[in-house]
Amino acid sequence: MSAPTSASQNKAPTIDALTANLQSTAISTTFDPRALSPADLKKLLLEPLDHTAASIASSISPPLNEVPTTDAASNDHEAAVAAPAPQAKGLVKYIADRVAYEGGEFVLRIGAPGPIEHSAQHVTFTDQELSIATANVVKASNLSDADATVLHEQAAEDGTKSATVLIRRIPAGAEELVELRIAVIGNVDAGKSTMLGVLTKGGLDDGRGKARVNLFRHKHEIESGRTSSVGMEIMGFDSKGRPVHNAAGPGQEPGRKMSWEEVCAKSSKVISFIDLAGHERYLKTTVFGMTGCLPDFVMLMVGANAGLIGMSKEHLGIALALSVPVVVCITKIDMTPAHVLETTLKQLTKILKSPGCRKAPVFVNDMGQVIESALRLESERICPIFQISNVTGLNLDLLRSFLNILPQASAAKFQVNQPFEFQISDIFSVPFVGTVVSGVVLAGSCKVGDSALLGPDSLGQFVTTSIRSIQRKRVNVDGATAGQSVSFALKKIRRNQVRKGMVMVARTDVAPKSYMEFDAEILCLYHSTTLSVGSCMVLHAASIRQTVRIVGIAKLDGKPTIGTGAAGDGHGKPVVRTGDRAKLRLQFIRYPEYVKPGMKLITREGKTKLIGVVRAVGQTGPLNGAPPSLQGAPPANVPPATHTAPALGVK
Fold first, then answer.
1. Which residue from 301, 310, 309, 387 is spatially nearest to 341, judged by alpha carbons?
2. Residue-level pLDDT at 413
């Protein structure tokens, strides 16, 4: 950038000052950086970066310490401020806007149509144009406090070339980390913990479970080799997309593991793995991890030597019921005969294409397939399949690249502009700190010192508390926003006052409510006999886990399920059988819970029974207009259906 010609200015504003002023003086608009047409994007990418920086410099005011000394300079400055600033035309501004819009990172497709760019009219790049464009993107990203990494280049038959570039923000602290939560599920002995040990520690397994030992939380897990609790482990990627292994590296003490704080300090993106149990005995723990930890994606582990057996099908059904995108990893291919592996692949393909799944299997074998499957996973009905070996390391590099590119969950999943809401999935009592709760921020934001309502307790009431401190990935932070997994240290709250399933909500004019009863639309996946009024089962909804009783049954069209066959038992008693869809009124057995319309639910008794969604809460009238005599009378001594909870002061 050339120096200013005015003699009144002693020095030119630096690029840092330009970008800082640009961000501070930017006008809030509804500009969507993704809406740029391919032709305009090509023009922007090929524009000389010096000209781009000069256009940005002309649209902003000089630094505060440089005051014009002449009237002419003042008039020029006022005219520049009054003129409409072409802020959306500079490549630096485009990348800064796009990074902020996408939550910290995005993938830029240069010269190739894809799910990110709206490419109704496709544009092509020559080899020279592509070199200029990628060089400009790298320079502009550096000016936007981000790093750009070329992931893949491809040449077409007509001589044109295309490139895929990952642009990721350099975070100033743990608050700005890009986070993904991935639940790891599958049948017992499928290799879930072993694969996580290899991914997060950086080494390979010895074939006897060496890599999984550090992930276990209990002694009996080490002895049996089977996970029985919800385990958490993280894997980091820096701003250039390189893995940050949670293991000793060059220049460190031999064998010393990196702490979570060290991993976060070197990372720009963190993958939080939720290691779940595969044994049928621990199904309740697995279901709680799937519903309470709110995973963005699910990684289904399938042993190549065994196939999709046992609890693998059950876990896959739970993921589909919760509408969580699924990635399949076929392990142990180094020890599996070719004909057995072929049988496993055919079985897996058949199940994924079945009417219950309706997913297109995509076998990932190269970098191009990695990029396409990662970018299309959430928006399309595909299921990437990786064939890996934790002993030889085969295809582990493709899996790491896939995790590096995998975008964040949709912004619609968490509402940042709504009042603060936080669901509690775990509780700790820390010496000299007090009661600590962990979970996911569902909506809004908070900071240290904020007051909130904690509840509901056994009486459906909420108590007032305040946030003493906040940690994210074991790093102290000043605040938290929707979609982040955090831990709160609470003031004046005892450990026995908190349980899993409770929530923290902001203090608003409307008091939060808890409910004993709610209506839900359900699908009965399996039951050995029939479900009728009075039947009990364990319900999972978000971090809620409590036994519920059926107090009303009706068809989805509003008519009571009366009759014979699948509709009734022949005596006028409404029932639900395997494969039926119905509307139920469910009642909590012990205490009221914080439930809202739209919450997805799963009920189980040994195996998963029902899946559904909450449609109404606090209803006292007939279910869908059906006469109460056809729904079954609720048990005696039932608490009220609705609890309006006033905020109680803590003594």
1. 387
2. 81
Q: Which residues of the chain have pLDDT under 50?
A: 1-31, 51-52, 54-89, 115-120, 249-255, 561-567, 625-638, 646-651
| pLDDT given for residue 424 in this prediction | 97
Q: Hey, what amino acid is at 51?
A: H
- Judge whether 182 and 289 are in contact, CB under 8 Å: no
Domain locations in the chain?
A: 15-152, 174-409, 414-505, 513-644
The DSSP symbol for 176 reads: G
3-state secondary structure of 487: strand
SS3 category, 623 = helix
User: What is the SS3 assignment for 62?
Assistant: coil
Amino acid identity, position 175: E
Q: What's the chain's length in residues?
A: 651
CATH topology of domain 513-644: Elongation Factor Tu (Ef-tu); domain 3 (2.40.30)
Parallel/antiparallel/unpaired status of strands 445-447 and 479-481: antiparallel
Please report how the helices 311-321 and 283-292 are oriented relative to each other, as an axis angle in degrees rounded to 10. Answer: 20
Spatial distance between the Cα atoms of 140 and 285, rounded to a whole number of angstroms: 47
Under 8 Å CB-to-CB from 148, ≥6 apart: which residues?
A: 108, 134, 137, 138, 140, 141, 142, 165, 166, 167
CATH superfamily of this structure's domain 414-505: Translation factors (2.40.30.10)
Res 203: pLDDT: 79
Q: Which of 566, 548, 562 is nearest to 614 (CA)?
A: 548
**Residue for token digits 């790049």?**
125
- Grouping H, G, I as helix, E, B as strand and the rest as coil, residue 83 is coil
CA 159 → CA 45, 125, 128, 134, 202, distances in Å?
20, 9, 11, 17, 39
Question: CA 320, CA 335: separation in Å to the nearest integer?
Answer: 30
Structure tokens at 62: 């000089």
Confidence (pLDDT) at 8 = 39
What are the φ and ψ backbone dihedral angles of 51, each rounded to 5 degrees?
-65, -40
CA angle 430, 259, 206 (to 5 degrees): 120
Q: CATH for 174-409, among 3.30.450.20, 3.40.50.300, 2.40.30.10, 3.40.710.10?
A: 3.40.50.300
Say what the pLDDT of residue 392 is: 92
Q: Which stretches does DSSP call E strand in 373-500?
A: 382-387, 421-430, 434-443, 445-447, 451-455, 462-472, 475-477, 479-481, 485-490
Record the tokens describing residue 429, joined without a space: 């009592």
Same fold for the domain at 174-409 and the one at 513-644? no
What is the 8-class DSSP label of residue 586?
A: E
Q: What is the pLDDT of residue 65?
A: 36
CB contact at 8 A, 375 and 407? yes
**109 close to 177: Cβ distance less than 8 angstroms:** no
Query: Which CA distances in Å does 304 have to 301, 308, 344, 648?
Result: 9, 9, 6, 56
Of the candidates 144, 137, 145, 139, the one whose C-alpha atom is nearest the C-alpha of residue 166 is 137
Tokens matching residue 563: 């009759």
pLDDT tens sequence across 387-414: 999 999 999 999 999 999 999 876 668 8
